[in-house]
Specification:
Helix content: 10-25%
Distance between the termini: 10 Å
Largest sheet: 8 strands, antiparallel
Number of domains: 2
Number of strands: 26
Strand content: 35-45%
Radius of gyration: 20 Å
Amino acid sequence: MKSVYFKDIRTALDAVNRSNAAFVLFCAPSAVHELSQQVKQSTVLCSAAGEYCSLGYQNGIISGFEYDPQMAEIVPIDPVPALSIKDMKQAYQKVKNNPNAFLLLLCEGLSKIEEKIMTSLYFMDKDFKVIGGSAGDDLSFTETPVYIGSEKVHSVGLFFDCKRRTYLARENIYRPSGKEMLVTDADPMNRIVRSFNGGPASTQYAKNLGVSERDLNNHFMNHPLGIEYDSEIYIASPQKINGNQSLSFYCQIMPNSFVKILEPLSPEEVIKETLKGIPFKPQFLLAINCILRCLKFQQEGLWPVIDQNLTGACQNTTGFISYGEQFYQRHVNQTMILLAIE
């Protein structure tokens, strides 16, 4: 697999349509639509809130990778994911015994469908590698298109029958602060929490952080919530405070569960540890970074040091900025999902 990037649509079209390889490309929604009119059918297009390539974090380019078309099976995913189970199951059966195989999920980013897609994967072994990202549109929140060639699809799964060793990592740049809250009223389907500890959600969140409720939204980026699962912390990012003091999130939070208030670690130290954990010298890296991580790195001037570490570990690196991440069979936020291939 080889990372690619293009500065304009014409250059991308020339390269893609001349090649015998298949491609997965990440770019702005407008570029996705324009490319879809002319690319070959083996090209998957996913809108992004920013791109990642061998130069590091970029915004406004076309990034992605090329691969041998015999290496992967592409499966469109219906807006009702249960209707795609048969096709997904058939593709999975062909690769399930390969420990290096993996599923790349590219989900529509605005319909809150990720958990439904993940639930529809019940037939897969829990250890089968799944890496995914939700399509983005640079915070305009209007359209997050995904295409297979000229066909607009809701979401897509690519089952890769990889022959080289693969390794999947999830990077979390937060840790529990020691404070936690009980979710006492929530609407998981709409990703809304109405109350923590029996009181209005925004009031209790602000109280536990020791900040004013009026200023709470300014603390979401550095103090998201953590959900503990199998002794691991998975991040749930607040989106906004609603008029009734409820909170909207970017993923589901279940009622009658405890959530931990998180605090930031040093991203530079964490990225070094993440890369040390790869059990081989990677020849290819696919990095999917959450939009909220991207905004934090932009505000704090951290992208250069992140880029230095990632591209220093492997120049053949690609990826995109997402509206949520998929890791094995969970949908998470504010995370980097990293796939390494030897």
